[in-house]
């Protein structure tokens, strides 16, 4: 479920309204309480009043379904110890342009879907094995939600990012645990099938972000939960979108949240303005977003992702940080194209 997810089960339900709202770029939520109102420590885009309203409605909705939960700053737990994160759901409510009046509807939809997914039969028990394999996809996710004890197979993609396998269902996306994979077969073969399925997805939308000074980068976006994960098949995506292959130097990429993948193919010194613009793009797109992945820009080179931006530990300011290999690349491009 989008937003409210059981950390141990991994089901992420989705709705048409929320898919529509997720695809904005530099989106900012509607203004409700003034900025001078005391802010909630956990979800700072909420005032204290709005946060109390949100958490109270979450608790009430669970109670209506016969589940008493204990409410904490960023999650709730039920009597059996199941833990449900609130960050994505809070972001969905925050960004809905209709304001607090629709929060009960959004929260009710989330909670009912997640409870139904928990209490109903598992798709792993009801679907034929070949259908399961046909609906497998790889997902690049933030490491914040990855428990090494449950997702030991997860492949490290970049600092703070991992690749996991997910089962795409009509109402949910089930992130598969080690236990689930044991029932399905060899993880390497399952990953190969998942990547094939990913390659078969259409490119839903494409925009070019550019300015008058020649800075540009490409953005693919769409409703699919796997749009950002197409970084795992970047060369094919670049060919489909631009009609040209990647160069040996690779590309800059950013995956602010699950419905966006930005890239700039490295061909010349236009990489310099693109790097700064994409760093800001990633940071803005990541902030308070459902399905957030990373606020940083990366260098994709021969299938490896190297982080190029970060927030300073002391001042929190966004900055570009490059290693020796990327610095050598920049110097080579400048010598070749001094203009």
> What does the average pLDDT come to?
86
* Overall radius of gyration: 21 Å
Number of domains: 3
Overall geometry: globular
Number of helices: 11
Helix and strand sequence:
EEHHEEEHHHHEEEEHHEEHEEHEEEEH
Q: Strands of the largest sheet, in order across it?
A: 10-11-13-12-14-15
Give the tally of β-strands. Answer: 17
In whole angstroms, the N-to-C terminal distance is 50 Å
Which structural category fits the helices and strands? alpha+beta
Helix amount: 25-40%
Low-pLDDT sequence parts: 1-30
Largest sheet: 6 strands, antiparallel
Into which percentage range does the β-strand content fall?
15-25%
Write a short abstract of this structure.
This protein is an alpha+beta fold and 339 residues long. Helices cover 35% and strands 22% of the residues.
Name a few traits of the molecule.
disordered N terminus, 17 strands, five-stranded antiparallel beta sheet, 339 residues, alpha+beta, globular, 3 domains
């Amino acid at each position: 479920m989008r937003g409210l997810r059981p950390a141990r089960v991994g089901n992420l339900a989705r709705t048409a309204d929320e898919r529509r709202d997720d695809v904005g770029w530099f989106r900012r939520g509607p203004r409700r309480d003034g900025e001078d109102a005391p802010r909630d420590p956990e979800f700072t885009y909420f005032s204290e009043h709005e946060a109390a309203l949100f958490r109270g409605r979450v608790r009430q909705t669970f109670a209506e379904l016969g589940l008493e939960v204990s409410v904490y700053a960023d999650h709730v737990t039920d009597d059996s110890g199941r833990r449900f994160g609130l960050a994505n759901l809070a972001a969905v409510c925050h960004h809905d342009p209709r304001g607090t009046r629709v929060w009960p509807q959004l929260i009710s939809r989330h909670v009912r879907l997640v409870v139904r997914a928990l209490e109903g039969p598992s798709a792993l028990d009801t679907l034929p094995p070949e259908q399961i394999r046909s609906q497998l996809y790889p997902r690049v996710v933030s490491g914040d939600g990855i428990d090494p004890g449950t997702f030991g197979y997860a492949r490290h993609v970049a600092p703070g990012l991992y690749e996991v396998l997910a089962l795409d269902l009509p109402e949910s996306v089930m992130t598969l645990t080690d236990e689930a994979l044991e029932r399905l077969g060899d993880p390497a073969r399952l990953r190969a099938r998942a990547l094939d399925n990913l390659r078969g997805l259409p490119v839903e939308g494409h925009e070019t972000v550019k300015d008058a000074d020649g800075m540009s980068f490409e953005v693919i976006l769409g409703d699919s939960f796997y749009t950002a994960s197409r970084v795992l098949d970047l060369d094919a995506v670049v060919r489909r979108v631009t009609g040209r292959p990647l160069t040996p130097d690779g590309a800059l990429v950013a995956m602010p949240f699950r419905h966006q993948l930005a890239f700039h193919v490295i061909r010349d010194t236009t990489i310099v303005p693109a790097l700064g613009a994409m760093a800001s793009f990633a940071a803005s797109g990541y902030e308070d977003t459902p399905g957030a992945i990373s606020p940083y820009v990366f260098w994709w080179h021969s299938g490896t992702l190297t982080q190029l931006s970060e927030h300073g530990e002391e001042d929190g300011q966004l900055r570009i940080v490059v290693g020796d290999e990327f610095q050598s690349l920049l110097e080579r491009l400048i010598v070749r194209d001094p203009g």
